[in-house]
Amino acid sequence: MEQSAQNHPEVYDFRQYDRIWQRVAPTLEPYPSPGQESTVQQETAGAASQAETGQMPGPALTPAQVRQESTLPGAERNPCCMGSAAAEMLEVLTGFVEGELADQRYYQTLVRQAPPWARQQLRDIAADEGGHAQRLMAVYFLITGECYRPTIHCDRIYLPGWCAALRERYHEEACGGLNYVRAAEGTTDPGLARLLNELSADEYRHADTMLRMLERSLRR
Protein backbone atom coordinates (compact mmCIF):
# COMPACT_ATOMS: atom_id res chain seq x y z
CA MET A 1 0.00 0.00 0.00
CA GLU A 2 2.80 2.44 0.87
CA GLN A 3 4.56 1.63 -2.39
CA SER A 4 1.32 2.24 -4.32
CA ALA A 5 0.88 5.66 -2.70
CA GLN A 6 4.43 6.65 -3.64
CA ASN A 7 3.92 5.60 -7.26
CA HIS A 8 0.61 7.45 -7.47
CA PRO A 9 0.95 10.88 -5.74
CA GLU A 10 -2.19 12.71 -4.73
CA VAL A 11 -3.87 14.51 -7.67
CA TYR A 12 -3.88 18.36 -7.30
CA ASP A 13 -7.33 19.86 -6.78
CA PHE A 14 -7.58 22.35 -9.66
CA ARG A 15 -10.92 23.65 -8.34
CA GLN A 16 -9.07 25.14 -5.36
CA TYR A 17 -6.55 26.66 -7.78
CA ASP A 18 -9.38 28.25 -9.77
CA ARG A 19 -10.91 29.80 -6.61
CA ILE A 20 -7.55 31.36 -5.65
CA TRP A 21 -7.07 32.64 -9.20
CA GLN A 22 -10.47 34.34 -9.17
CA ARG A 23 -9.57 36.24 -6.01
CA VAL A 24 -6.13 37.35 -7.25
CA ALA A 25 -6.73 38.03 -10.94
CA PRO A 26 -10.37 37.62 -11.92
CA THR A 27 -9.87 39.23 -15.35
CA LEU A 28 -7.01 36.98 -16.50
CA GLU A 29 -7.15 33.64 -18.29
CA PRO A 30 -6.02 30.89 -15.81
CA TYR A 31 -4.81 28.55 -18.57
CA PRO A 32 -3.11 30.74 -21.21
CA SER A 33 -1.86 29.53 -24.51
CA PRO A 34 1.94 29.38 -25.01
CA GLY A 35 1.97 32.73 -26.83
CA GLN A 36 0.20 34.45 -23.96
CA GLU A 37 2.40 33.19 -21.12
CA SER A 38 4.77 36.20 -20.92
CA THR A 39 1.88 38.70 -20.93
CA VAL A 40 -0.04 36.74 -18.33
CA GLN A 41 3.03 36.53 -16.10
CA GLN A 42 3.41 40.32 -16.16
CA GLU A 43 -0.27 40.91 -15.45
CA THR A 44 -0.28 38.27 -12.71
CA ALA A 45 2.68 39.92 -11.00
CA GLY A 46 0.85 43.24 -10.99
CA ALA A 47 -2.33 41.65 -9.67
CA ALA A 48 -0.41 39.86 -6.93
CA SER A 49 1.22 43.13 -5.88
CA GLN A 50 -2.21 44.74 -5.59
CA ALA A 51 -3.48 41.78 -3.60
CA GLU A 52 -0.62 42.14 -1.12
CA THR A 53 -1.55 45.76 -0.45
CA GLY A 54 -5.25 44.95 -0.18
CA GLN A 55 -6.11 46.83 -3.40
CA MET A 56 -7.90 44.47 -5.72
CA PRO A 57 -8.12 45.48 -9.38
CA GLY A 58 -11.39 47.05 -10.42
CA PRO A 59 -13.06 47.15 -13.82
CA ALA A 60 -11.28 49.25 -16.43
CA LEU A 61 -12.85 52.64 -17.22
CA THR A 62 -13.91 53.46 -20.74
CA PRO A 63 -12.77 56.79 -22.28
CA ALA A 64 -16.31 58.16 -21.83
CA GLN A 65 -16.25 57.28 -18.12
CA VAL A 66 -12.86 58.95 -17.70
CA ARG A 67 -14.17 62.16 -19.30
CA GLN A 68 -17.28 62.01 -17.12
CA GLU A 69 -15.25 61.64 -13.91
CA SER A 70 -13.02 64.58 -14.86
CA THR A 71 -16.07 66.84 -15.04
CA LEU A 72 -17.51 65.94 -11.63
CA PRO A 73 -17.79 68.77 -9.03
CA GLY A 74 -14.49 69.24 -7.27
CA ALA A 75 -12.48 67.45 -9.97
CA GLU A 76 -10.90 70.71 -11.19
CA ARG A 77 -8.30 72.49 -9.11
CA ASN A 78 -9.63 75.82 -10.36
CA PRO A 79 -13.45 75.64 -10.09
CA CYS A 80 -15.70 77.64 -12.37
CA CYS A 81 -17.35 79.41 -9.40
CA MET A 82 -15.40 81.30 -6.73
CA GLY A 83 -12.10 80.42 -8.44
CA SER A 84 -9.30 82.52 -9.93
CA ALA A 85 -11.74 84.81 -11.78
CA ALA A 86 -13.38 85.71 -8.47
CA ALA A 87 -9.99 86.15 -6.81
CA GLU A 88 -9.37 89.11 -9.10
CA MET A 89 -12.27 90.87 -7.31
CA LEU A 90 -11.01 90.40 -3.75
CA GLU A 91 -10.19 94.07 -3.22
CA VAL A 92 -13.64 95.06 -4.48
CA LEU A 93 -15.31 92.49 -2.23
CA THR A 94 -13.51 93.66 0.91
CA GLY A 95 -14.52 97.22 0.04
CA PHE A 96 -18.14 96.11 -0.15
CA VAL A 97 -17.81 94.36 3.23
CA GLU A 98 -16.56 97.53 4.89
CA GLY A 99 -19.29 99.60 3.21
CA GLU A 100 -22.07 97.25 4.31
CA LEU A 101 -20.87 97.26 7.92
CA ALA A 102 -20.68 101.06 7.87
CA ASP A 103 -24.26 101.21 6.56
CA GLN A 104 -25.38 98.83 9.29
CA ARG A 105 -23.90 101.10 11.98
CA TYR A 106 -25.51 104.14 10.37
CA TYR A 107 -28.99 102.61 10.37
CA GLN A 108 -28.61 101.41 13.94
CA THR A 109 -27.86 105.02 14.91
CA LEU A 110 -30.63 106.43 12.72
CA VAL A 111 -33.21 104.27 14.53
CA ARG A 112 -32.77 106.45 17.64
CA GLN A 113 -33.83 109.61 15.77
CA ALA A 114 -36.54 108.05 13.63
CA PRO A 115 -40.28 108.44 14.28
CA PRO A 116 -41.89 105.33 15.81
CA TRP A 117 -43.51 104.21 12.54
CA ALA A 118 -40.09 104.01 10.78
CA ARG A 119 -37.99 102.30 13.43
CA GLN A 120 -38.74 98.66 12.64
CA GLN A 121 -38.09 99.19 8.93
CA LEU A 122 -34.73 100.75 9.76
CA ARG A 123 -33.87 97.85 12.04
CA ASP A 124 -34.72 95.43 9.24
CA ILE A 125 -32.51 97.32 6.79
CA ALA A 126 -29.66 97.37 9.32
CA ALA A 127 -30.00 93.58 9.62
CA ASP A 128 -29.95 93.27 5.82
CA GLU A 129 -26.72 95.26 5.60
CA GLY A 130 -25.11 93.07 8.25
CA GLY A 131 -26.30 89.99 6.37
CA HIS A 132 -24.75 91.32 3.15
CA ALA A 133 -21.41 91.71 4.91
CA GLN A 134 -21.61 88.14 6.24
CA ARG A 135 -22.36 86.73 2.78
CA LEU A 136 -19.45 88.64 1.26
CA MET A 137 -17.11 87.39 3.97
CA ALA A 138 -18.31 83.84 3.27
CA VAL A 139 -17.47 84.39 -0.41
CA TYR A 140 -14.04 85.66 0.62
CA PHE A 141 -13.48 82.39 2.47
CA LEU A 142 -14.69 80.33 -0.51
CA ILE A 143 -12.14 82.06 -2.74
CA THR A 144 -9.13 82.20 -0.41
CA GLY A 145 -9.76 79.64 2.32
CA GLU A 146 -9.06 82.40 4.86
CA CYS A 147 -11.31 84.52 7.08
CA TYR A 148 -11.55 88.22 6.34
CA ARG A 149 -11.21 90.42 9.41
CA PRO A 150 -13.14 93.68 8.87
CA THR A 151 -11.90 96.94 10.28
CA ILE A 152 -13.35 97.89 13.66
CA HIS A 153 -14.63 101.49 13.72
CA CYS A 154 -15.36 103.38 16.90
CA ASP A 155 -16.03 106.74 15.27
CA ARG A 156 -19.11 108.58 16.37
CA ILE A 157 -21.79 108.97 13.69
CA TYR A 158 -23.29 112.45 13.28
CA LEU A 159 -26.69 112.60 11.63
CA PRO A 160 -28.39 115.51 9.91
CA GLY A 161 -32.12 116.09 10.30
CA TRP A 162 -34.54 113.24 9.67
CA CYS A 163 -35.51 114.16 6.10
CA ALA A 164 -31.92 115.07 5.23
CA ALA A 165 -30.80 111.67 6.53
CA LEU A 166 -33.38 109.90 4.36
CA ARG A 167 -32.20 111.86 1.32
CA GLU A 168 -28.61 110.90 2.03
CA ARG A 169 -29.54 107.24 2.55
CA TYR A 170 -31.54 107.12 -0.68
CA HIS A 171 -28.53 108.19 -2.74
CA GLU A 172 -26.23 105.88 -0.79
CA GLU A 173 -28.44 102.85 -1.39
CA ALA A 174 -29.06 103.63 -5.06
CA CYS A 175 -25.34 104.11 -5.69
CA GLY A 176 -24.67 100.84 -3.83
CA GLY A 177 -27.08 99.04 -6.13
CA LEU A 178 -25.33 100.48 -9.18
CA ASN A 179 -21.88 99.56 -7.87
CA TYR A 180 -22.94 95.96 -7.32
CA VAL A 181 -24.25 95.77 -10.89
CA ARG A 182 -20.99 97.17 -12.24
CA ALA A 183 -19.01 94.66 -10.21
CA ALA A 184 -21.20 91.81 -11.49
CA GLU A 185 -20.59 92.92 -15.06
CA GLY A 186 -16.85 93.15 -14.38
CA THR A 187 -16.37 89.50 -13.40
CA THR A 188 -16.43 86.33 -15.49
CA ASP A 189 -17.17 84.19 -12.43
CA PRO A 190 -20.86 83.15 -12.75
CA GLY A 191 -21.38 82.40 -9.06
CA LEU A 192 -19.96 85.73 -7.94
CA ALA A 193 -21.90 87.64 -10.60
CA ARG A 194 -25.17 86.07 -9.45
CA LEU A 195 -24.50 87.01 -5.83
CA LEU A 196 -23.57 90.60 -6.70
CA ASN A 197 -26.77 91.02 -8.71
CA GLU A 198 -28.81 89.76 -5.75
CA LEU A 199 -27.13 92.28 -3.46
CA SER A 200 -27.78 95.00 -6.01
CA ALA A 201 -31.49 94.22 -5.97
CA ASP A 202 -31.49 94.50 -2.16
CA GLU A 203 -29.79 97.89 -2.28
CA TYR A 204 -32.33 99.25 -4.76
CA ARG A 205 -35.10 97.89 -2.54
CA HIS A 206 -33.63 99.81 0.38
CA ALA A 207 -33.52 102.96 -1.76
CA ASP A 208 -37.22 102.53 -2.53
CA THR A 209 -37.91 102.24 1.21
CA MET A 210 -36.03 105.50 1.84
CA LEU A 211 -38.10 107.20 -0.85
CA ARG A 212 -41.39 106.03 0.66
CA MET A 213 -40.29 107.17 4.11
CA LEU A 214 -39.35 110.56 2.72
CA GLU A 215 -42.71 110.89 0.96
CA ARG A 216 -44.54 110.16 4.20
CA SER A 217 -42.35 112.53 6.20
CA LEU A 218 -42.82 115.44 3.80
CA ARG A 219 -46.61 115.14 4.00
CA ARG A 220 -46.59 115.91 7.73
Q: State the helical fraction.
A: 55-70%
CATH class of the largest domain: Mainly Alpha
Average pLDDT for all residues? 78
Strand elements, count: 0
Supply the number of helical segments: 9
Please give the largest β-sheet.
none
The CATH superfamily of the largest domain is identified as Ferritin, core subunit, four-helix bundle
- Give the low-pLDDT segments: 1-6, 69-75
Number of domains: 2
Q: Bin the strand percentage.
A: under 5%
Distance between the termini: 125 Å
Rg measurement, Å: 35 Å
* CATH architectural designation of the largest domain: Up-down Bundle
CATH topology of the largest domain: Ferritin
- Class by SSE composition: mainly alpha
Order of H and E elements: HHHHHHHHH
Shape: elongated
Outline the structure in words.
The chain is mainly alpha-helical. It folds into 2 domains: 2-60, no CATH class; 84-219, Ferritin, CATH 1.20.1260.10. Helices cover 68% and strands 0% of the residues. It has 9 helices and no strands. It has helices at residues 2-7, 14-24, 37-52, 63-70, 84-87, 90-110, 116-144, 162-185, 190-219. Helix 6 runs antiparallel to helix 7.
Topology (SSEs and partners):
Layout: H1 2-7, H2 14-24, H3 37-52, H4 63-70, H5 84-87, H6 90-110, H7 116-144, H8 162-185, H9 190-219
Helix pairs in contact: 6-7, 7-9, 8-9
Based on the model shown, name its key terms.
single chain; 220 residues; mainly alpha; Ferritin; 2 domains; elongated; disordered N terminus
